[in-house]
Amino acid sequence: MGPTRPILAILSLILVAGGVLLQFFTILTGAVNSAPLDRFYFLQASTNGIANARNPSRWTFFAICGADPTSGHNANCGAIVPALPFDPPRNFGTEDGVPEQFLNTNQYFLLSRFMFAFYLIALFFGAIALLTGLLALVSRLGGYISSMTTSIALFFQTLAATLMTVWVVKGRDAFRSAGYEANIGRYLMGFAWASMACFFVATISFCLGGRLGGDSSSGVRRSRSTKSNRSRGSFLDTDSHRKTREYSP
To answer: Which residues of the chain are under the pLDDT cut of 50?
Structure first.
């Protein structure tokens, strides 16, 4: 069982690293507008009927961008806003032309804001899992600790992906109901759920590494203990036979 632990630990580290990389691809959108990040956005909607709005408008993690008519990539991004909420009346500074589903409600604002917070928490614990995963290469305890930190990242990533899916789908449907064209950014949607899947499999793999990958030192100690008990038992049996012969009539 010795080689099992490092193999599972390496597999888990690769999965966690992949999940964290996809998180970075999501979180850096809008702040870094170069390839390949300029291809990614949460939601795109044609907003030609809304004053002060780009047409189309693309919501990313840090900014609202337009689209380059030639390449189709993000372009003409607005100011970088930490935890940019999805709330068209606030985003555009007007209610004129904004679909009525976005008016007099805070649900989109809250859904997107909590998504951003959960994304950052998941990223933090994902990074911690990468560090503790190195311990999983050499000890069972490291595997259990890594499984715990990865499971926390999994929990918050699941919440972030769920909230993102809700506000993106509801936002698309609201724009379409008002006669605007709207599309979901398939890349960021896929990244969100793929990160969750990576953390899920890594959590199980780390745990199995701790459970199945017995320490070789423990095996040596058990082997020595067994041999010692056998030797002691043989000595006692021999001594018992000798005493029996001495006292036999």
So the answer is: 1, 215-222, 235-236, 244, 247-249
Q: Is the pTM of this model over 0.70?
A: yes
How far apart (Å, rounded) are the C-alpha atoms in residues 93 and 99?
A: 14
Query: 10: burial class by Cβ within 10 Å (0-12, 13-18, 19+)?
Result: middle
- Residue in the block written with tokens 């001495």: 246
Mean pLDDT in the chain? 86
Residue 73, amino acid: H
Neighbours of 86 (CB within 10 A): 23
Kindly report the length of the chain.
249
Decide: 25 and 61 in contact? Cβ < 8 Å. Answer: no
Q: 74 forms bridges with which residues in the sheet?
A: 67
> What span, in angstroms and rounded, lies between the C-alpha atoms of 94 and 112?
19
Residues near 217 by Cβ (< 8 Å), separated by ≥ 6?
none
